[in-house]
Protein backbone atom coordinates (compact mmCIF):
# COMPACT_ATOMS: atom_id res chain seq x y z
CA UNK A 1 0.00 0.00 0.00
CA UNK A 2 1.25 3.52 -0.75
CA UNK A 3 1.57 6.15 2.00
CA UNK A 4 -1.34 8.54 2.38
CA UNK A 5 -2.70 11.49 4.34
CA UNK A 6 -6.48 11.42 4.41
CA UNK A 7 -9.04 13.69 6.04
CA UNK A 8 -12.59 14.30 4.86
CA UNK A 9 -14.38 16.95 6.93
CA UNK A 10 -17.78 16.95 5.15
CA UNK A 11 -20.72 16.06 7.35
CA UNK A 12 -23.25 13.88 5.52
CA UNK A 13 -26.91 14.18 6.44
CA UNK A 14 -28.53 11.28 4.63
CA UNK A 15 -32.08 10.10 4.07
CA UNK A 16 -35.67 10.90 3.30
CA UNK A 17 -36.79 14.21 4.79
CA UNK A 18 -33.28 15.38 5.66
CA UNK A 19 -33.73 18.82 4.07
CA UNK A 20 -35.63 19.81 7.20
CA UNK A 21 -32.34 19.45 9.10
CA UNK A 22 -30.75 22.21 7.04
CA UNK A 23 -31.38 24.93 9.57
CA UNK A 24 -29.14 23.42 12.23
CA UNK A 25 -26.19 23.32 9.83
CA UNK A 26 -26.31 26.90 8.52
CA UNK A 27 -25.21 29.57 11.04
CA UNK A 28 -28.35 31.29 12.44
CA UNK A 29 -27.31 34.82 11.44
CA UNK A 30 -25.70 33.95 8.14
CA UNK A 31 -26.21 35.96 4.96
CA UNK A 32 -26.87 33.06 2.63
CA UNK A 33 -26.72 32.82 -1.16
CA UNK A 34 -28.65 29.80 -2.49
CA UNK A 35 -27.17 28.78 -5.86
CA UNK A 36 -28.96 26.53 -8.32
CA UNK A 37 -29.19 25.53 -11.96
CA UNK A 38 -31.66 25.95 -14.78
CA UNK A 39 -34.80 25.52 -12.72
CA UNK A 40 -35.36 21.81 -11.99
CA UNK A 41 -35.22 22.54 -8.26
CA UNK A 42 -37.82 25.24 -8.63
CA UNK A 43 -40.15 22.93 -10.57
CA UNK A 44 -39.85 19.91 -8.28
CA UNK A 45 -40.29 21.70 -4.97
CA UNK A 46 -36.74 21.26 -3.67
CA UNK A 47 -36.07 25.00 -3.67
CA UNK A 48 -39.24 25.76 -1.70
CA UNK A 49 -38.28 23.16 0.90
CA UNK A 50 -34.78 24.60 1.17
CA UNK A 51 -36.02 28.17 1.55
CA UNK A 52 -38.56 27.09 4.17
CA UNK A 53 -35.90 25.20 6.11
CA UNK A 54 -33.62 28.26 6.08
CA UNK A 55 -36.41 30.35 7.60
CA UNK A 56 -36.83 28.01 10.58
CA UNK A 57 -35.08 29.28 13.73
CA UNK A 58 -32.69 31.99 12.57
CA UNK A 59 -32.55 35.51 11.19
CA UNK A 60 -30.87 34.72 7.96
CA UNK A 61 -30.72 37.00 4.96
CA UNK A 62 -31.39 34.64 2.02
CA UNK A 63 -30.67 35.54 -1.61
CA UNK A 64 -30.76 33.40 -4.75
CA UNK A 65 -28.54 32.93 -7.78
CA UNK A 66 -29.97 30.81 -10.59
CA UNK A 67 -28.80 29.72 -14.01
CA UNK A 68 -25.66 27.71 -13.29
CA UNK A 69 -25.51 25.57 -16.40
CA UNK A 70 -24.42 21.93 -16.80
CA UNK A 71 -20.62 22.16 -17.10
CA UNK A 72 -20.70 25.49 -15.26
CA UNK A 73 -19.06 28.44 -16.94
CA UNK A 74 -16.58 30.90 -15.53
CA UNK A 75 -18.61 33.70 -17.10
CA UNK A 76 -21.83 32.81 -15.21
CA UNK A 77 -20.03 32.11 -11.94
CA UNK A 78 -18.32 35.50 -11.96
CA UNK A 79 -21.79 37.09 -11.86
CA UNK A 80 -22.45 35.10 -8.68
CA UNK A 81 -19.16 36.35 -7.23
CA UNK A 82 -20.33 39.90 -7.89
CA UNK A 83 -23.61 39.22 -6.08
CA UNK A 84 -21.69 37.80 -3.12
CA UNK A 85 -19.77 41.06 -2.80
CA UNK A 86 -22.80 43.30 -3.37
CA UNK A 87 -24.95 41.56 -0.75
CA UNK A 88 -22.12 40.80 1.70
CA UNK A 89 -22.92 37.11 1.57
CA UNK A 90 -21.02 34.97 4.08
CA UNK A 91 -22.43 31.47 3.44
CA UNK A 92 -23.18 29.64 0.16
CA UNK A 93 -25.68 26.84 -0.31
CA UNK A 94 -25.55 24.78 -3.51
CA UNK A 95 -28.83 23.09 -4.47
CA UNK A 96 -28.36 20.77 -7.43
CA UNK A 97 -26.02 18.32 -9.11
CA UNK A 98 -22.29 18.34 -9.69
CA UNK A 99 -22.38 21.44 -11.84
CA UNK A 100 -24.05 23.58 -9.19
CA UNK A 101 -21.84 22.25 -6.39
CA UNK A 102 -18.67 22.69 -8.46
CA UNK A 103 -19.80 26.18 -9.43
CA UNK A 104 -20.40 27.01 -5.79
CA UNK A 105 -16.89 25.84 -4.90
CA UNK A 106 -15.48 28.19 -7.50
CA UNK A 107 -17.58 31.10 -6.19
CA UNK A 108 -16.50 30.29 -2.61
CA UNK A 109 -12.85 30.56 -3.62
CA UNK A 110 -13.18 33.48 -6.05
CA UNK A 111 -15.09 35.59 -3.51
CA UNK A 112 -12.18 35.40 -1.09
CA UNK A 113 -9.41 35.98 -3.62
CA UNK A 114 -7.44 39.23 -3.07
CA UNK A 115 -8.76 41.98 -5.37
CA UNK A 116 -5.38 42.09 -7.12
CA UNK A 117 -5.76 38.49 -8.29
CA UNK A 118 -7.66 37.51 -11.48
CA UNK A 119 -10.19 34.76 -10.70
CA UNK A 120 -9.10 32.79 -13.75
CA UNK A 121 -5.88 32.10 -11.81
CA UNK A 122 -7.90 29.62 -9.73
CA UNK A 123 -8.26 27.47 -12.84
CA UNK A 124 -4.87 28.25 -14.30
CA UNK A 125 -3.24 27.09 -11.07
CA UNK A 126 -5.76 24.21 -10.68
CA UNK A 127 -6.62 25.60 -7.26
CA UNK A 128 -3.14 26.24 -5.89
CA UNK A 129 -3.76 30.01 -5.49
CA UNK A 130 -6.69 29.39 -3.13
CA UNK A 131 -5.74 30.56 0.37
CA UNK A 132 -9.26 31.16 1.71
CA UNK A 133 -12.86 30.31 0.77
CA UNK A 134 -16.36 31.13 1.94
CA UNK A 135 -17.99 28.31 3.90
CA UNK A 136 -20.67 26.41 1.99
CA UNK A 137 -23.01 23.44 2.12
CA UNK A 138 -24.91 21.43 -0.48
CA UNK A 139 -28.30 19.85 -1.08
CA UNK A 140 -27.63 17.15 -3.67
CA UNK A 141 -30.18 16.38 -6.38
CA UNK A 142 -28.14 14.22 -8.78
CA UNK A 143 -25.97 11.27 -7.71
CA UNK A 144 -22.90 11.14 -9.95
CA UNK A 145 -19.89 13.31 -9.32
CA UNK A 146 -19.12 12.94 -5.62
CA UNK A 147 -18.70 16.73 -5.49
CA UNK A 148 -20.93 16.71 -2.39
CA UNK A 149 -18.10 15.12 -0.38
CA UNK A 150 -14.90 16.11 -2.13
CA UNK A 151 -12.79 19.19 -2.61
CA UNK A 152 -12.68 19.34 -6.40
CA UNK A 153 -14.58 21.07 -9.16
CA UNK A 154 -14.57 21.55 -12.91
CA UNK A 155 -15.29 24.90 -14.58
CA UNK A 156 -15.41 25.82 -18.27
CA UNK A 157 -14.51 29.11 -19.90
CA UNK A 158 -17.20 29.20 -22.56
CA UNK A 159 -15.38 31.72 -24.73
CA UNK A 160 -12.35 29.45 -25.22
CA UNK A 161 -13.76 25.93 -24.59
CA UNK A 162 -11.32 25.36 -21.74
CA UNK A 163 -12.79 22.85 -19.26
CA UNK A 164 -10.46 22.78 -16.28
CA UNK A 165 -10.50 20.95 -12.95
CA UNK A 166 -9.27 22.50 -9.71
CA UNK A 167 -9.13 21.48 -6.09
CA UNK A 168 -8.17 22.78 -2.68
CA UNK A 169 -8.55 21.36 0.79
CA UNK A 170 -10.54 24.54 1.57
CA UNK A 171 -13.29 23.40 -0.82
CA UNK A 172 -14.92 20.52 1.02
CA UNK A 173 -18.59 21.30 1.68
CA UNK A 174 -19.18 21.81 5.41
CA UNK A 175 -22.18 19.51 5.06
CA UNK A 176 -24.20 17.84 2.34
CA UNK A 177 -27.82 16.82 2.51
CA UNK A 178 -28.40 13.59 0.58
CA UNK A 179 -32.09 12.80 0.29
CA UNK A 180 -32.66 10.07 -2.34
CA UNK A 181 -36.23 11.33 -2.87
CA UNK A 182 -34.76 14.53 -4.38
CA UNK A 183 -33.51 12.40 -7.29
CA UNK A 184 -36.92 11.00 -8.32
CA UNK A 185 -37.53 13.74 -10.88
CA UNK A 186 -34.26 13.17 -12.75
CA UNK A 187 -34.60 12.30 -16.44
CA UNK A 188 -33.50 8.67 -17.11
CA UNK A 189 -30.56 9.94 -19.12
CA UNK A 190 -29.12 11.84 -16.14
CA UNK A 191 -29.52 8.81 -13.89
CA UNK A 192 -27.70 6.63 -16.42
CA UNK A 193 -24.97 9.26 -16.75
CA UNK A 194 -24.62 9.24 -12.97
CA UNK A 195 -24.25 5.46 -12.75
CA UNK A 196 -21.51 5.59 -15.39
CA UNK A 197 -19.75 8.52 -13.70
CA UNK A 198 -19.64 6.74 -10.32
CA UNK A 199 -18.52 3.50 -11.99
CA UNK A 200 -15.69 5.24 -13.83
CA UNK A 201 -14.55 7.19 -10.75
CA UNK A 202 -14.18 3.87 -8.99
CA UNK A 203 -12.35 2.31 -11.92
CA UNK A 204 -9.87 5.18 -12.12
CA UNK A 205 -8.77 4.52 -8.55
CA UNK A 206 -8.76 0.73 -9.01
CA UNK A 207 -7.71 -0.28 -12.50
CA UNK A 208 -4.00 0.49 -12.31
CA UNK A 209 -1.46 -1.99 -10.87
CA UNK A 210 -1.61 -3.99 -7.62
CA UNK A 211 -0.07 -2.50 -4.46
CA UNK A 212 -1.59 -5.04 -2.06
CA UNK A 213 -4.18 -2.50 -0.90
CA UNK A 214 -6.80 -5.06 0.00
CA UNK A 215 -9.22 -2.78 1.79
CA UNK A 216 -9.28 -0.26 -1.05
CA UNK A 217 -9.62 -3.01 -3.67
CA UNK A 218 -12.50 -4.71 -1.88
CA UNK A 219 -14.25 -1.39 -1.27
CA UNK A 220 -13.87 -0.51 -4.95
CA UNK A 221 -15.10 -3.94 -6.07
CA UNK A 222 -18.07 -3.57 -3.71
CA UNK A 223 -18.99 -0.24 -5.27
CA UNK A 224 -18.59 -1.60 -8.81
CA UNK A 225 -20.73 -4.67 -8.08
CA UNK A 226 -23.36 -2.51 -6.38
CA UNK A 227 -23.54 -0.20 -9.38
CA UNK A 228 -23.88 -3.18 -11.73
CA UNK A 229 -26.67 -4.59 -9.55
CA UNK A 230 -28.68 -1.42 -9.12
CA UNK A 231 -27.88 0.51 -12.32
CA UNK A 232 -30.68 -0.82 -14.52
CA UNK A 233 -33.30 -0.48 -11.75
CA UNK A 234 -32.11 2.99 -10.85
CA UNK A 235 -32.88 4.02 -14.43
CA UNK A 236 -36.11 2.05 -14.86
CA UNK A 237 -37.75 2.59 -11.45
CA UNK A 238 -37.25 6.21 -10.44
CA UNK A 239 -39.27 6.03 -7.23
CA UNK A 240 -37.69 2.91 -5.75
CA UNK A 241 -36.27 4.49 -2.59
CA UNK A 242 -33.74 1.83 -1.65
CA UNK A 243 -32.31 1.62 -5.14
CA UNK A 244 -31.86 5.37 -5.24
CA UNK A 245 -30.43 5.40 -1.71
CA UNK A 246 -27.81 2.85 -2.75
CA UNK A 247 -27.04 4.82 -5.89
CA UNK A 248 -26.60 8.08 -3.97
CA UNK A 249 -24.28 6.53 -1.41
CA UNK A 250 -22.28 4.61 -4.05
CA UNK A 251 -21.71 7.78 -6.04
CA UNK A 252 -20.61 9.70 -2.94
CA UNK A 253 -18.26 6.92 -1.79
CA UNK A 254 -16.80 6.56 -5.28
CA UNK A 255 -15.14 9.97 -5.10
CA UNK A 256 -14.70 11.13 -1.52
CA UNK A 257 -11.06 10.14 -1.32
CA UNK A 258 -11.53 6.95 0.67
CA UNK A 259 -10.99 4.31 -2.02
CA UNK A 260 -8.22 6.40 -3.60
CA UNK A 261 -6.10 6.71 -0.46
CA UNK A 262 -2.94 4.62 -0.69
CA UNK A 263 -3.40 3.40 -4.28
CA UNK A 264 -2.15 4.54 -7.70
CA UNK A 265 -4.72 6.41 -9.79
CA UNK A 266 -5.31 6.92 -13.50
CA UNK A 267 -7.54 9.86 -14.46
CA UNK A 268 -6.87 9.64 -18.20
CA UNK A 269 -10.48 8.74 -18.98
CA UNK A 270 -11.71 11.90 -17.26
CA UNK A 271 -9.12 14.19 -18.80
CA UNK A 272 -9.84 12.94 -22.34
CA UNK A 273 -13.58 13.06 -21.54
CA UNK A 274 -13.37 16.72 -20.48
CA UNK A 275 -12.06 17.63 -23.94
CA UNK A 276 -14.98 15.77 -25.55
CA UNK A 277 -17.41 17.83 -23.45
CA UNK A 278 -15.58 21.10 -24.09
CA UNK A 279 -15.34 20.64 -27.87
CA UNK A 280 -18.51 18.67 -28.62
CA UNK A 281 -20.90 19.29 -25.73
CA UNK A 282 -21.29 15.59 -24.85
CA UNK A 283 -22.60 15.00 -21.29
CA UNK A 284 -19.80 14.26 -18.81
CA UNK A 285 -20.93 10.70 -17.99
CA UNK A 286 -21.33 9.87 -21.66
CA UNK A 287 -17.79 10.93 -22.50
CA UNK A 288 -16.54 8.44 -19.91
CA UNK A 289 -18.52 5.57 -21.44
CA UNK A 290 -16.80 6.31 -24.73
CA UNK A 291 -13.27 6.59 -23.34
CA UNK A 292 -13.01 3.97 -20.58
CA UNK A 293 -13.45 0.82 -22.72
CA UNK A 294 -10.85 2.22 -25.13
CA UNK A 295 -8.43 2.93 -22.25
CA UNK A 296 -8.87 -0.67 -21.05
CA UNK A 297 -8.11 -1.96 -24.52
CA UNK A 298 -5.09 0.23 -25.26
CA UNK A 299 -3.63 -0.14 -21.75
CA UNK A 300 -4.30 -3.84 -21.35
CA UNK A 301 -0.63 -4.76 -20.83
CA UNK A 302 0.07 -2.05 -18.25
CA UNK A 303 -3.17 -2.91 -16.42
CA UNK A 304 -3.03 -6.66 -16.97
CA UNK A 305 -3.01 -7.86 -13.35
CA UNK A 306 -5.82 -5.56 -12.27
CA UNK A 307 -7.86 -6.32 -15.39
CA UNK A 308 -7.74 -10.01 -14.49
CA UNK A 309 -8.69 -9.24 -10.88
CA UNK A 310 -11.56 -7.03 -12.12
CA UNK A 311 -12.78 -9.76 -14.49
CA UNK A 312 -12.93 -12.31 -11.70
CA UNK A 313 -14.16 -10.25 -8.78
CA UNK A 314 -16.58 -7.87 -10.48
CA UNK A 315 -17.88 -10.00 -13.37
CA UNK A 316 -17.22 -13.56 -12.11
CA UNK A 317 -15.25 -14.32 -15.29
CA UNK A 318 -13.07 -17.36 -14.51
CA UNK A 319 -12.99 -19.42 -17.69
CA UNK A 320 -10.63 -19.17 -20.64
CA UNK A 321 -7.05 -17.95 -20.93
CA UNK A 322 -5.96 -14.59 -19.52
CA UNK A 323 -6.46 -12.63 -22.74
CA UNK A 324 -9.91 -14.08 -23.28
CA UNK A 325 -10.87 -13.11 -19.72
CA UNK A 326 -9.65 -9.54 -20.28
CA UNK A 327 -11.56 -9.34 -23.57
CA UNK A 328 -14.68 -10.55 -21.80
CA UNK A 329 -14.28 -8.01 -18.97
CA UNK A 330 -13.95 -5.14 -21.44
CA UNK A 331 -16.98 -6.40 -23.38
CA UNK A 332 -19.04 -6.69 -20.18
CA UNK A 333 -18.10 -3.15 -19.18
CA UNK A 334 -19.13 -1.79 -22.55
CA UNK A 335 -22.41 -3.72 -22.58
CA UNK A 336 -23.19 -2.56 -19.02
CA UNK A 337 -22.98 1.08 -20.15
CA UNK A 338 -25.00 0.31 -23.28
CA UNK A 339 -27.65 -1.49 -21.19
CA UNK A 340 -28.22 1.79 -19.36
CA UNK A 341 -28.83 3.54 -22.67
CA UNK A 342 -25.38 5.17 -22.76
CA UNK A 343 -23.61 4.77 -26.13
CA UNK A 344 -19.90 3.88 -26.06
CA UNK A 345 -18.51 4.91 -29.42
CA UNK A 346 -17.48 8.28 -30.88
CA UNK A 347 -19.49 7.30 -33.95
CA UNK A 348 -22.66 7.30 -31.84
CA UNK A 349 -22.13 11.08 -31.57
CA UNK A 350 -21.37 11.49 -35.27
CA UNK A 351 -17.68 11.95 -34.53
CA UNK A 352 -15.12 10.36 -36.85
CA UNK A 353 -11.34 10.18 -37.19
CA UNK A 354 -11.16 13.87 -38.10
CA UNK A 355 -12.28 14.77 -34.56
CA UNK A 356 -9.15 13.25 -33.03
CA UNK A 357 -6.45 15.84 -33.87
CA UNK A 358 -8.29 18.75 -32.22
CA UNK A 359 -8.94 16.63 -29.11
CA UNK A 360 -5.27 15.70 -28.80
CA UNK A 361 -4.29 19.34 -29.39
CA UNK A 362 -6.65 20.39 -26.57
CA UNK A 363 -5.05 17.85 -24.22
CA UNK A 364 -1.64 19.32 -25.06
CA UNK A 365 -2.89 22.86 -24.55
CA UNK A 366 -4.11 21.90 -21.08
CA UNK A 367 -0.87 20.16 -20.12
CA UNK A 368 -2.43 16.68 -20.21
CA UNK A 369 0.61 15.07 -21.77
CA UNK A 370 1.64 12.63 -19.03
CA UNK A 371 -1.55 10.91 -17.97
CA UNK A 372 -2.07 7.53 -16.34
CA UNK A 373 -0.81 5.80 -13.21
CA UNK A 374 2.75 5.87 -14.57
CA UNK A 375 2.46 9.23 -16.37
CA UNK A 376 3.14 7.42 -19.64
CA UNK A 377 -0.08 8.24 -21.50
CA UNK A 378 1.50 10.73 -23.88
CA UNK A 379 -0.48 12.57 -26.56
CA UNK A 380 0.34 9.68 -28.91
CA UNK A 381 -1.22 7.17 -26.52
CA UNK A 382 -4.27 9.43 -26.07
CA UNK A 383 -4.57 9.40 -29.86
CA UNK A 384 -4.55 5.59 -29.87
CA UNK A 385 -7.22 5.60 -27.17
CA UNK A 386 -9.42 7.92 -29.22
CA UNK A 387 -8.86 5.76 -32.31
CA UNK A 388 -9.95 2.71 -30.33
CA UNK A 389 -13.13 4.61 -29.36
CA UNK A 390 -14.20 5.33 -32.97
O1 LIG B 1 -29.96 22.84 -14.21
P1 LIG B 1 -31.16 22.12 -13.74
O2 LIG B 1 -32.43 22.67 -14.24
O3 LIG B 1 -31.16 21.94 -12.24
O4 LIG B 1 -31.13 20.63 -14.39
C1 LIG B 1 -30.06 19.73 -14.17
C2 LIG B 1 -29.12 19.62 -15.37
O5 LIG B 1 -29.78 19.96 -16.57
C3 LIG B 1 -30.65 18.34 -14.08
N1 LIG B 1 -31.05 17.94 -12.73
C4 LIG B 1 -30.27 17.88 -11.61
N2 LIG B 1 -30.99 17.39 -10.58
C5 LIG B 1 -32.25 17.16 -11.04
C6 LIG B 1 -32.29 17.51 -12.41
N3 LIG B 1 -33.40 17.40 -13.15
C7 LIG B 1 -34.50 16.90 -12.53
N4 LIG B 1 -34.53 16.50 -11.25
C8 LIG B 1 -33.42 16.60 -10.46
N5 LIG B 1 -33.42 16.17 -9.20
O6 LIG B 1 -29.61 17.48 -14.50
C9 LIG B 1 -28.81 18.14 -15.48
C10 LIG B 1 -27.35 17.82 -15.26
O7 LIG B 1 -26.90 18.36 -14.04
P2 LIG B 1 -25.33 18.46 -13.72
O8 LIG B 1 -25.18 19.05 -12.37
O9 LIG B 1 -24.64 19.12 -14.86
O10 LIG B 1 -24.89 16.93 -13.73
P3 LIG B 1 -23.75 16.19 -12.93
O11 LIG B 1 -24.09 16.03 -11.51
O12 LIG B 1 -23.48 14.97 -13.73
O13 LIG B 1 -22.48 17.17 -12.98
C11 LIG B 1 -21.64 17.23 -14.09
C12 LIG B 1 -20.51 18.22 -13.84
O14 LIG B 1 -19.69 17.77 -12.74
C13 LIG B 1 -18.32 17.69 -13.16
C14 LIG B 1 -18.46 17.39 -14.62
O15 LIG B 1 -17.26 17.62 -15.32
C15 LIG B 1 -19.58 18.29 -15.04
O16 LIG B 1 -19.12 19.62 -15.24
N6 LIG B 1 -17.61 16.73 -12.32
C16 LIG B 1 -17.28 17.07 -11.06
C17 LIG B 1 -16.52 16.27 -10.25
C18 LIG B 1 -16.14 16.65 -8.88
N7 LIG B 1 -16.48 17.84 -8.40
O17 LIG B 1 -15.52 15.88 -8.17
C19 LIG B 1 -16.03 14.98 -10.70
C20 LIG B 1 -16.69 14.49 -11.92
O18 LIG B 1 -15.81 13.60 -12.52
C21 LIG B 1 -17.07 15.53 -12.91
O19 LIG B 1 -15.98 15.87 -13.71
ZN1 LIG C 1 -16.76 12.13 -13.42
Fold and architecture overview:
45% of the residues lie in helices and 11% in strands. It has 14 helices and 8 strands. A 6-stranded parallel sheet has the order 1-8-5-4-2-3, sandwiched between helices. A two-stranded antiparallel sheet has the order 6-7. Strand 6 and strand 7 form a beta hairpin. The longest helix has 23 residues. The two termini are 36 Å apart. 5,6-dihydroxy-NADP binds next to helix 1, helix 4, strand 6 and helix 6. 5,6-dihydroxy-NADP (NZQ) binds next to helix 1, helix 4, strand 6 and helix 6.
Quick take:
The chain is of the alpha/beta class and 390 residues long. It contains 14 helices and eight strands.
Task: List ligands, each type once.
Answer: 5,6-dihydroxy-NADP, zinc ion
Instruction: Kindly state the number of beta strands.
Output: 8
- Helix count? 14
Strand content: 5-15%
Given helix and strand content, the structural type is: alpha/beta
| CATH H-level homologous superfamily name of the largest domain | Dehydroquinate synthase-like - alpha domain
CATH C-level label of the largest domain: Mainly Alpha
Topology (elements, then pairings):
Layout: E1 11-14, E2 31-36, H1 40-43, H2 46-55, E3 61-65, H3 74-86, E4 91-96, H4 98-110, H5 120-124, E5 136-140, E6 152-157, E7 162-167, E8 175-178, H6 188-204, H7 214-236, H8 241-254, H9 268-280, H10 284-298, H11 304-315, H12 322-339, H13 356-365, H14 379-388
Parallel strand pairs: 1-8, 2-3, 2-4, 4-5, 5-8
Antiparallel strand pairs: 6-7
Helix pairs in contact: 3-4, 6-7, 6-8, 6-10, 7-8, 7-11, 9-10, 9-13, 10-12, 10-14, 11-12, 13-14
Amino acid sequence: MLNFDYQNPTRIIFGQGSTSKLSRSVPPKARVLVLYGGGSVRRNGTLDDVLAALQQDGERHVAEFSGIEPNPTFETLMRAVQQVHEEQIDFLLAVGGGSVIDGTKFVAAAARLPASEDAWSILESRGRVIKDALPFGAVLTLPATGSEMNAGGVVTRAATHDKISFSSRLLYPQFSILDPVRTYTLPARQVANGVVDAFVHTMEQYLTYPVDARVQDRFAEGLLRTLVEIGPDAVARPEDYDTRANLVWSATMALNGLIGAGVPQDWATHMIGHELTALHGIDHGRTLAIVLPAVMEVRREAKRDKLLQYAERVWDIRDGDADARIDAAIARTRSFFESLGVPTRLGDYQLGADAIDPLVAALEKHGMTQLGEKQDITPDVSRQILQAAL
